[in-house]
């Protein structure tokens, strides 16, 4: 079965059992124990005791937000929070019917008329380019929220011949962000927030096989590898573009439609311990709107409003600068290939 939905968090539930490498078993086990303590609803509740409620007390009138995958789950919860505070919301979604329905709901609840839908398939490099170029012609953007994600459980190619998880999670995010950087540099307090996942802690960057052509394909592993790449891109962009505040984040394990459909057994087993969508969205909203967030250095990875390590202890997941350069070069080359 092929599933490609707007995913906001993932768990590598199968990999503990199927992994053949000792190191990856070690990483998965350490990570799962950490997840049970921190990524659950009780983990959120413990962390939230230290949140400053006034951090989200902001009037967003006049600020413009692009949110990919905004019609369900954490993306939709985030769009709602921003609309509630008067921000202009640009929802970037694949399915027109679902997007319009979510938009109507958000407008009705927030009484905010500045909510717009843009139909874009984030797995299509050409469509992402076209959207970014169209958008920056006539609109301003203050904050880009890269939330759309995809976990396809079988190796599948897009119409453009790219592996689908990579095309959506990594290349789509790369093209949208880099194409909007000139527009972001023109505004006050520009930010880019990317929804990664704690699952990336189990992966070391593998730049030799970006589209999973070698070995047995494992969708959860591919997803986590893409999430690792997003964290590295965030660090690199932060170093390159000082005028923009970049961050990546982990929403925790939340009860979203995407988790329910792409990981039904995990969802069933964990249901009572999963976070609500609003809990999953909290740090994303905080990074996108609060004055407190931009006091943090640019380029970091956040969980529950705090920057956290991008590596598990002794997990050998650090990449070399050379590999990171290779990743950037490969993405740039692919991106240019599809530029209209
Ligand atoms: C937010 O700011 C706008 C103009 O800057 C103002 O019209 C509006 O009343 C403010 N909203 C709230 C809830 O304070
Ligand atoms: C970009 O704009 C052109 C011209 O207005 C339109 O035909 C096209 O559908 C737009 N593409 C996207 C992805 O928004
Ligand atoms: C941008 O606005 C101009 C003038 O209103 C219009 O001609 C053009 O088609 C718009 N571009 C897009 C991509 O919507």
- DSSP E strands, number: 8
Stated plainly, the CATH topology is called Rossmann fold
Mean pLDDT: 91
Helices and strands, in order, run as HHHEHEHEHEHEHEHHHEEH
In whole angstroms, the N-to-C terminal distance is 33 Å
CATH second-level architecture? 3-Layer(aba) Sandwich
Residue runs with pLDDT of under 50 for 5 or more positions: 1-20
CATH homologous superfamily label:
NAD(P)-binding Rossmann-like Domain
Number of helices: 12
Largest sheet: 8 strands, mixed
Strand order of the largest sheet: 3-2-1-4-5-6-7-8
Give the overall form: globular
Can you tell me the CATH class?
Answer: Alpha Beta
Heteromolecules bound: 2-acetamido-2-deoxy-beta-D-glucopyranose
Helical amount? 40-55%
Q: Which structural category fits the helices and strands?
A: alpha/beta
Strand content: 5-15%
Can you tell me the number of structural domains? 1
* C-alpha Rg (nearest Å): 18 Å
Organism: Mastacembelus armatus (zig-zag eel)
InterPro entries: NAD(P)-bd_dom_sf, SDR_fam, SDR_member_12
Protein name: Dehydrogenase/reductase (SDR family) member 12
Pfam families: adh_short
Record the SSE blueprint.
Layout: H1 15-18, H2 22-38, H3 41-48, E1 64-68, H4 73-84, E2 88-93, H5 96-110, E3 115-119, H6 125-138, E4 143-146, H7 164-184, E5 191-195, H8 219-240, E6 245-250, H9 257-262, H10 264-270, H11 277-289, E7 300-303, E8 306-307, H12 321-337
Parallel strand pairs: 1-2, 1-4, 2-3, 4-5, 5-6, 6-7
Antiparallel strand pairs: 7-8
Residues 59, 61, 86 line the site of one 2-acetamido-2-deoxy-beta-D-glucopyranose (NAG).
């Amino acid at each position: 079965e092929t599933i490609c939905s707007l995913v906001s968090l993932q768990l590598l539930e199968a990999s503990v059992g199927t992994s053949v490498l000792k190191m990856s078993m070690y990483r998965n086990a350490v990570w799962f124990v950490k997840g049970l303590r921190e990524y659950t609803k009780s983990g959120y509740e413990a962390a939230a005791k230290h949140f400053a409620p006034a951090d989200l007390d902001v009037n967003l009138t006049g600020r413009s937000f692009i949110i990919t995958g905004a019609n369900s789950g954490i993306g939709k919860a985030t769009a709602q929070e921003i609309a509630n505070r008067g921000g202009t919301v640009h929802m970037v979604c694949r399915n027109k019917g679902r997007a319009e329905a979510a938009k109507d709901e958000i407008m009705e609840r927030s009484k905010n008329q500045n909510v717009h839908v843009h139909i874009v398939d984030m797995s299509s490099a050409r469509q992402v380019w076209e959207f970014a170029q169209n958008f920056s012609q006539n609109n301003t953007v203050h904050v880009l929220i890269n939330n759309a994600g995809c976990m396809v459980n079988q190796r599948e190619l897009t119409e453009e011949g790219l592996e689908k998880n990579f095309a959506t999670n990594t290349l789509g995010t790369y093209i949208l962000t880099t194409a909007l950087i000139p527009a972001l540099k023109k505004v006050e307090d520009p930010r880019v927030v990317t929804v990664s996942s704690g699952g990336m802690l189990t992966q070391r960057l593998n730049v030799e096989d970006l589209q999973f052509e070698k070995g047995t394909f494992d969708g959860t592993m591919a997803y986590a590898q893409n999430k690792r790449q997003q964290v590295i891109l965030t660090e690199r962009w932060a170093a390159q573009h000082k005028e923009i505040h970049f961050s990546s984040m982990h929403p925790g394990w939340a009860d979203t439609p995407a988790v329910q459909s792409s990981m039904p057994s995990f969802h069933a087993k964990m249901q009572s311990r999963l976070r609500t969508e609003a809990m999953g969205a909290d740090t994303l909203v905080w990074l996108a709107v609060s004055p407190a967030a931009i006091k943090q250095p640019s380029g970091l990875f956040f969980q529950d409003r705090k920057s956290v390590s991008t590596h598990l202890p002794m997990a050998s997941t650090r990449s070399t600068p050379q590999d990171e350069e290779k990743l950037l070069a490969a993405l740039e080359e692919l991106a240019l290939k599809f530029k209209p």
